Amino acid sequence: MFPPLRAILPTLLSSTRLSPVDRLLAALDHGIRAVTTTPQSARPTPRPSGPGDPLDDAERRRAGALMRVDHVGEVCAQALYSAQALAAGNAALRRQFEHAAEEETDHLAWTAQRLAELGARPSLLNPLWYAGAFAIGLVAARSGDARSLGFLVETERQVERHLDGHLDRLPAADLASRAIVAQMKDDEAGHAIAAERAGASPLPSPARWAMRVAARVMTTTAHYV
Ligand SMILES: [Fe+2]
Ligand SMILES: [Fe+2]
């Protein structure tokens, strides 16, 4: 029986018995599952205290587009942490990545579930987003632990700001999406703080700028496709 998505990253991170080829195959397996299946979340889906007003068609479409973008972000998070898992330099770091990756898997499950509730579909380009994020994550991971952590801090901070923007743009009545996005935003902030404490070195301005441009291309495209 094949392991679920949730079990693959910890295997990649903690196993000392896997050969490099095994680890590569596990990373490939993880990627295919991340873009083709919906994982089970370990934590319950964040729910609002009340039901909220019903959404009209325009609000439902707007919420669906925003949640599709957030789901793409979580697909990319799977790719980034998988790349980190392949290349992380020490055991403490691997454990930290493992914890963050667990929460990212919850995010992937919650956003996929909310997309379905809204009658919206995931991005058709998810395999492309995953491959691109994996390649970027691998480059970052190969640049040394401090730089790699700096890349994670910058990524998580940008995602946190992006989710904050979505809280402004989601329909006021869509309490269910808001509850999910608010919890994800808190989690991403925690991932950034943990990476800072683990010894992240700040990224140079051009790298931060390039990451913002790449994120803008992804979020603008995923809104529609
Ligand atoms: Fe996330
Ligand atoms: Fe995160």
In words, what does this structure look like?
It is globular, with a radius of gyration of 17 Å. It is mainly α and 225 residues long. The chain is 74% helix and 0% strand. The protein binds fe (ii) ion (FE2) (2 copies).
Tell me briefly what this model is:
This protein is mostly helical and 225 residues long. It has eight helices and no strands. It has helices spanning 5-14, 20-36, 57-87, 91-117, 126-141, 145-169, 175-197, 205-222.
Helix share bin = over 70%
Q: What is the C-alpha radius of gyration, as a whole number of Å?
A: 17 Å
Beta percentage is under 5%
The span between the termini is 34 Å
Biggest sheet descriptor: none
Q: On the 0-100 scale, what is the average pLDDT?
A: 87
Note the total helix count: 8
Question: What small ligands are held by the chains?
Answer: fe (ii) ion
Strand tally, please?
A: 0
* Secondary-structure element string: HHHHHHHH
Task: Show unreliable segments.
Answer: none
What is the 3D shape?
globular
- Category by helix and strand content: mainly alpha
